Amino acid sequence: MYTDPNATTDVAVHTSHSGVVSALVILKNAGAATEYRFPLNLPQGSSAVPTDDGGITIFDKAGQTVGSFAPPWATDANGEPVKTSYRSDGGDLVQTIQVDESTTYPVIADPAWWDTVKDIGGGMVEDTWNSMKCGAALGAAFVPGTKAYKLIKAAGGIKKILTVLASVDTKKGALSALGSGGSSLFGIKAIKKACFDDLQ
Q1: How confident is the model at residue 34 (pLDDT cuts 50, 70, 90)?
Q2: Across-strand partners of 56?
Q3: Pick the CATH number of 1-122 from 3.90.550, 2.40.50, 2.120.10, 2.60.40
Q4: Which one of 8, 113, 123, 136 is CB 3.0 to 4.6 Å from 21, fit for a cystine?
Q5: Cα(174)–Cα(96) distance, integer angstroms
Q6: Are the CB atoms for 170 and 200 separated by under 8 Å?
């Protein structure tokens, strides 16, 4: 669970024994964003294709299914369903949550990552769990106007940070690749724990 009492959104991450990784996005009040981007970091030739039920299927360059996202769902504090949908945009999975005046907060939305976990040609982070855990921590901290937001931007943004961390296996390597912007992220406890503590 990645929480910030000053943020309008919290994130909880869960992985099942079957390899499904879910990021529960918790909209705490009406000030929360209603659109959330999750970098896919897919290798060249891969594609993210919407399914008839509202999910997303990932294909490799040979047209083989390598992963999928279950149809999204969202519910408010009264257990009422909230309309939500996915779209693929510039290599990101985007979830939109359609709240209205009848919505009671908090709202919980669930993008379920990767029904089938498979490394496709080194272009995807091999350790999907750690990647999603780190992405969730960065996403929870990425609130405009905050110190963490500025530090993440200075390090190149969430997508760059995840891409860099996928290519290194030591803290020294991560610091070298991310530069001064990356080293400042060590000062944010949740990000340090989720993104850097597993590095040597």
Answers
A1: very high
A2: 50, 69
A3: 2.60.40
A4: 113
A5: 32
A6: yes
Domain boundaries, the chain: 1-122, 125-200
Contact status, residue 199 vs residue 171, Cβ threshold 8 Å: yes
pLDDT higher for 114 or 85? Answer: 85
Which tokens in the block code for residue 77? 């504090």
Cα separations in angstroms, 120 against 37, 62, 85, 173, 200: 21, 11, 26, 23, 25
- 60: tokens are 């490799």
For 67, counting Cβ atoms within 10 Å of its Cβ (0-12 exposed, 13-18 middle, 19+ buried), the class is buried
Q: Does residue 11 contact residue 81 with C-beta atoms inside 8 Å? A: no
**Span 140-155, mean pLDDT?**
80
- Work out the angle between the directed axes of helices 128-141 and 158-166 (0-180°, nearest 10): 150
Q: How much is the pLDDT for 136?
A: 66
Using the structure block, give the residue that is written with the tokens 């999928």. Answer: 68
